[in-house]
Amino acid sequence: MRLYYDAVEGNDSRLGGRNDVRHLHVLWEHKKMMSERIGYLVDEGIIPYDEELVAGYKDISKRAMKLRDQYIRHEIREDNEMFERLRLRFDEFQKEEPVLLQKLITLLDG
Question: Which residue of 5, 39, 45, 96 has the fewest CB atoms within a 10 Å radius of its CB?
Fold first, then answer.
């Protein structure tokens, strides 16, 4: 996704003028579903409730949705800092999510 949005920012001719928010919608949908799956695992007693895991995925999901919404607004009225925000959020997700996934794996193993 980072490469795609770098290409959009640079007006890469290979995109043919295409500027698509669907990538960010899929990202948000994935994070939302992960949060819901964790809730299901807790509700069914498959894993114990873990505040850091539950709150962490809810927060990531919320930020992914906000990022998607900001990009939609960017398409309407151009925001010159949007691409920097995208890079920042992608870096945050890449840093935070493996920690949460490891916690989930640990809980599933236990």
Answer: 45
